[in-house]
Write a structure and sequence with these properties.
The protein is an all-alpha fold. The chain contains 15 helices and no strands. It starts with a helix and ends in a 7-residue tail after the last helix.
């Protein structure tokens, strides 16, 4: 197992390096530091002196890839690519274009994002799987028919409708929860209830249909027919055999949303004014703070690769047929 994990980690480094180079190319070659300076200064007629001063203050005055004016290893280290991209591998995010410590901001804002994303993921997974199992258990009945219709209706409505409708109904009319904001400690619960419920409800349509398709495919296989022939009830067959054998595609679906546990939801946090990493990224895009955007893109890539590694390890635990190659 240790050798397998080590090999997979060795595979991830070239992948992250490629993502890093591509991100650097988009931010510094397509959009040059001069363009970034003019956008940050926000003036129609910016002097070259002002552009040069801004580049020096933010460390963008160095050569992009190779500093021919320096000797030995400094040719590489004293470049924009090393200072702004390579240091990300050591999680040295540096300072934003507005002068804030990006690493400190990430440590502070990750907790509100986790407070929303983790319950939303777990509750959504349980609700989706339970709804799908009920539709499969009562397949060819009115319950399955109307369950599929409800899923189609739910997934056909934009998530913005659930957010705005939930705020209007539960916050403005019924006044059960605050319409937006965030608190510390136990006070944070009243701000988290509505976003979590909306996340679970808005994801029920697509999640329920997808898991239903997985389970229906499983119930047609030979081992399910054998289990029924041995006298197991339909409920025992579904929960004991079908659910266990469908864990691999379930884990594959979960890994897609793993980065959201840390990165946060861009739309949800923005509408509910929650100081998480999602709203942090949106604010950086609006301010054109490219240092923060680069850091968040790299962080998302790292989390996604870690999620893939964890998924492969879980495959070996839930399915003995999977070998550690």
């Amino acid at each position: 197992m240790i050798q397998y994990i080590f090999r997979r980690l060795m595979y991830t480094f070239p992948l992250l390096l490629g993502v890093n180079i591509l991100t650097f190319f988009l931010f510094f070659v397509v959009n040059t530091p001069d363009d970034m300076a003019r956008m940050q200064l926000g003036q129609k007629h910016v002097t070259e002196q002002a552009v040069s001063k801004w580049k020096v203050e933010h460390g963008y005055d160095l050569p992009l890839f190779l500093n021919t004016e320096r000797g030995s290893f400094n040719k590489i280290t004293e470049t924009v690519f090393y200072q702004k991209s390579i240091k990300l591998f050591a999680f040295q995010f540096g300072v934003s274009d507005s002068g804030r410590d990006i690493g400190a901001d990430i440590k502070q804002r990750m907790w509100p994002s986790l407070a929303i994303a983790l319950p939303s993921l777990l509750l959504g997974l349980l609700v989706n799987i339970f709804a799908a199992l009920m539709m499969v258990l009562f397949r060819h009945s009115y319950l399955e028919f109307w369950g599929v219709v409800a899923c189609v209706v739910i997934m056909s409505i934009s998530a913005l409708f659930y957010i705005i409708g939930g705020q209007f109904l539960f916050s403005k009319l019924l006044k059960l929860v605050p319409i937006s904001g965030f608190g510390s400690g136990i006070d944070a619960l009243k701000f988290l209830i509505l976003p979590i419920v909306i996340s679970v409800v808005s994801g029920l349509g697509s999640g329920g249909r997808w898991y239903r398709a997985l389970f229906i495919e499983e119930v047609e296989k030979d081992y399910v027919i054998t289990a029924r022939a041995k006298g197991l009830s339909e409920t025992q067959t579904l929960f004991r055999h079908v659910l266990g054998n469908a864990m691999i595609p379930i884990l594959t679906g979960v890994v897609v949303v793993l980065p959201l546990l840390f990165m946060g939801s861009l739309i949800m946090e923005s509408f509910f004014s929650i100081p998480g990493l999602g709203s942090y990224t949106i604010d950086a895009i609006n301010r054109q703070d490219f240092a923060i955007v680069r850091s968040m893109v790299f962080l998302g890539s790292v989390l996604y690769v870690i999620g893939l590694l964890l998924t492969d390890i879980c495959y070996t635990l839930v399915d003995p047929r999977v070998k550690l190659l």
